[in-house]
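During the no-cost extension, the postdoctoral fellow (Dr. R.K.) reprocessed legacy sequence entries with the updated structure-token encoder. One reprocessed record is reproduced below for audit purposes.
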Amino acid sequence: MPDSLLERIPPRGKGLSTNDWPGLLEERKRLVLEYFQNNDIRLPNLGSVGCLHDIDVCTSGFDNLFFSCNSIIGGANLSLDTQGIFWRLSEEITLPQKRSWRHFVFIDEYKLKNILGFSSENEWIIATVLCYWESLGQCIGSEKAVVIQIYRVGLDEIFRRTKKTPENLWYEIGRAINGLAFNYGDNRNWIPGTWDLAKTLQGQVGLPEIHKAECAA
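Re-encoded structure tokens follow.
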């Protein structure tokens, strides 16, 4: 990549200006998409993002969005099958809600969650998920999606809605790839063949080290 901005940057990002990061962000997106394409690796689907919290006597974690919702509002050619690199944003909004019944279970609260990422067409995508917590007993329950809205966005709208910067997004792409690159426990998001990509991104301006090696399936 002879014209890469990275070649002009000292180690660990020292000397970067705010004007460098938008170009670096686009470069990182392009590198990721080209890696998947050149190595014939299928990009994950939007619906595979772990977003809905589930806890019962056996498991505790996040389930993906597939088969979770009948009401999906998407822009042209956008759906849970849209391929790309996506990740769940940590910020959630709890909506005012009185405890109520739905399908013979208690609903304690409604939440709005956001998933951010970019598609195989290099377009920024946001999915907004309205869900509720379905209480099934003491310390047992799960989140159920009510409506999922998927739409294309520009960077300005992302910055406005999430308060993130191009630098924040640059690092979040690296963390998203880290989550796909190695197998640990019951990691359903693991994609074999992406370890080299994670190592490449790790070496760019000092991404946090990856401590686990890729494992055989």
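The chain is about 25% helix and 30% strand. Residues 1-41+155-208 form one domain. The remaining legacy entries will be reprocessed before the final report is submitted.
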